[in-house]
Amino acid sequence: MARLVVKSEDLIVRLSWWEKAAARRRNVHVPLSAVHQVAIEPDWWRALHGIPGRGTFIPGALSLGTRPHPRGKDFAAVRARRPVVCVELRRPSPYSRLAVTDPDPEATARAVRTAAGI
Question: Cis ω on the peptide bond leading into residue 92 (within 30° of 0)?
Fold first, then answer.
């Protein structure tokens, strides 16, 4: 299962080997300075913006990869029926949002907020 990890000055979406294959990319790294807001979305489907892009999308089950939309693109590692940690980003990040189903969303959101100084 994907996890959000703070390491030095980066926020990393750490993917398992099969998630890397499904998303068709390696772990996602964004600078902590780009973190604007962190929230937990209890309704997994509300965390998904845009349309499925590069990666894997299984309706009602999984979204893993990029999701382009009019304001940019998001990276999603979301599983159905579980809460999602949503991290809103600003430049210099290549993404406008990270949406990740994390095993412990409360602790993860708290750690990201603390590391980003929010």
Answer: yes
Query: What is d(CA 99, CA 85) in angstroms, rounded to the nearest whole number?
Result: 6
Q: How many domains does the chain have?
A: 1
Task: State pTM to two decimals.
Answer: 0.92
Amino acid code (one letter) for 13? V
Task: Return the HEC string of the chain.
Answer: CCEEEEECCEEEEECCHHHHHHHCCCCEEEEHHHEEEEEEECCHHHHCCCCCCCEEEECCCEEEEEEEECCEEEEEEEECCCCEEEEEECCCCCCCEEEECCCCHHHHHHHHHHHHCC
**What is the extent of the structural domain holding 103?**
3-116
Could you give the C-alpha distances from 115 to 10, 14, 43, 51, in angstroms and in order?
A: 9, 17, 25, 30
Q: Which two tokens stand for residue 68?
A: 């382009």
**pLDDT tens per residue, range 38-73:** 999 999 889 999 999 999 999 999 999 999 999 899
